[in-house]
Amino acid sequence: MTKRRLPLGIQDFEKLRKKQCYYVDKTQLIYNLIDEGECYFLSRPSRFGKSLLLSTMEHLFLGHSSLFEGLVYDKDKA
């Protein structure tokens, strides 16, 4: 088992995945937001992961599939 780092202060999905940090996979929730929703207002306190969520969505829409290997949204599994 690979020892992973805590992603303290990392708000970029690509950097987090390339450094092999711990990541709570929220890609299923992102898929649900995209598939079912229209407009969303992200009202969470600071330091609650809004920037990381948007960075994850950015890489998803840009088609950076290698970053999603092993996650729920991994297209190679489907």
List keywords for this structure.
78 residues, mainly alpha
Would you kindly provide a brief summary of this structure?
This protein is an all-alpha fold and 78 residues long.
Explain the overall architecture:
This protein is mainly alpha-helical. It is built from three helices and no strands. It has helices spanning 13-18, 27-36, 50-61. The longest helix is centred in the C-terminal third of the chain and has 12 residues, at 50-61. It is globular and about 40 Å long. The two termini are 25 Å apart.
Roughly what percent helix? Answer: 25-40%
Give the biggest beta sheet.
none
The tally of strands reads 0
What is the number of helical segments per DSSP (H or I, 4+ residues)?
3
Shape: globular
Q: Give the integer mean of the pLDDT values.
A: 86
Structural class: mainly alpha
End-to-end gap: 25 Å
The value of Rg in angstroms is 13 Å
Strand residue percentage: under 5%
List the helices and strands and how they pair.
Blueprint (H helix, E strand, L loop, with lengths): L12 H6 L8 H10 L13 H12 L17
